[in-house]
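As a warm-up, study this chain.
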Amino acid sequence: MTAAPSGPAFSVHDIPFSIYGSWFDISPVVAEKTYAEDLHLVSHQNGMHAVLRLIPLSTAKGDRAETRVEATPGLLSWTGERGRVELAFESPDTVRLRGRGLGFGVLAAAHRLTPFSGTYFFHDPAADAHVFTSYETGRRYRVTVLSGALAGATGSQALGGVDRGLTMTGGADGTWEIAIEELDTSRPPYASSAAFGEIVESARRSFAAFVDAVAPWRSPATPAAELAAYVVWSATVRPAGLVTRPAVLMSKHWMDKVWSWDHCFNALALASGCPELAMDQFALPFDHQDAGGALPDSVTHSEVLYNFVKPPIHGWAFAHLRRRLPAPLSGEQLAQTYDRLRRWTDFWLTARRSPGARLPHYQHGNDSGWDNATSFDPERVVVTADLSAFLVLQLRELAGLAGELGRPDEARRWADLAEETQTALLDQLWTGDRFVTRSAATADTWTSASLLDLMPIVLGEHLPGEISSTLADHIKAHLTPYGLATELPTSPHYLADGYWRGPIWAPATVLVEDGLRRAGHHRLADDISARFRALCETHGFAENFDALTGTGLRDRAYTWTASSYLLLAAAHAHRDGH
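Now compare it with the structure written out below.
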């Protein structure tokens, strides 16, 4: 009964098993940094919630069977001495499971049911199926027996603290099969659309088509390309709730949101092979742009947060996005993007510039995306060089778009603002050796050992040569064998797992590498790219990495890391002529 594995094998302890479009995954990760003994069906509707516990069982004693869990993009399996259970996605909201030689338990993850929390369980006579209904997700999970024998059901209609669920065992031929659906309220009784092997093959083909589209350049020299593509593909959800478009979540672990700068890196990685999906990624936060032009901090199924913003890298990103798209954007698309970027830029020029100030400010480290970087240690409401550099690039992109749209007066205005902002950046924050951070309330300035202070390298060809060379020299000091440490390892504030106070991050790597390359520092850019690619090939696609050991930290299946690998690997392959 074993289906042939296909695609890269991976550990579900690091990467959840899921499929493009689905809002749930199969994983032992049930909350932030929390790993369960059993795999769970974990939904990301209304937050991250472990709903069902999935347990392979011994047919002899009915207790948990010792098994080895294996996963490839189309198939998840539990293999024990006496049998095997397999799981595959039939559709984004339905999984099929079958077993031979092992029984199986599907139990509510929550033991206690209250009037406001937990999971209620009952048999639905209309569909002849068992249903779990979850307060946390607001959804139902219907289990239909397709073959084999229902060994037992416990806790049906029970209240309070009891076990709830069902167990399966083999029929006369020793096999069984079930379907589990995530649904809203009701739908017709489940009817099988295909045999199990056909379902596995369909999922395999879907992923294969995706990886062929986004990484046609892959070769033995880019060994992590397929797994990077799987991380992105499997973290993509269909439109639902406040998610207005197909969206690549940052993860189907606990970082299950779209943050308003993370999305840019996913859009860039998708641009050449999946242009519509790429444009959806770029546009999604703009769908929630507020009346003042600000983008939300984050968007997810049932929540849009505006308490912070994220840095204005969107002009930089859109310029790169257009170069990667296989066909030009329409005039309507350009006009819509121009208007959205205009409003986003006006937010920084008005709401985030003090009266008489020439440069904008952050109100907290979270606004920068570098939440706890040491640049923010003295104060949080600060004028930083990275922010002004990003804004200069966005102003230049607006000038170009206005010119294309036949708006010469606006084009001149944006170009003048870009020059004025860059002049102010160099006059006010450049000391001749490095950029400083300044209090938005006083004239106080300071420096730090954070890579954030060096991010104006993103200006690339727009920087005077002596400044880009000085920045490049400082950047070299941040290089470890694995990549760019976000805090100098020699700093007294360096922390191995200190979020932005040491670990290597993908977005900083991509932005610095691009700026260095555009400034003509190709050898250093090549070195940074090579070290980061090797890091991902060895340690996966974690949220960030220990700068001195390479160990993956925090969320271990982060899409902007995977997308950044794809971006750097594609560029390297093209430079090598592959």
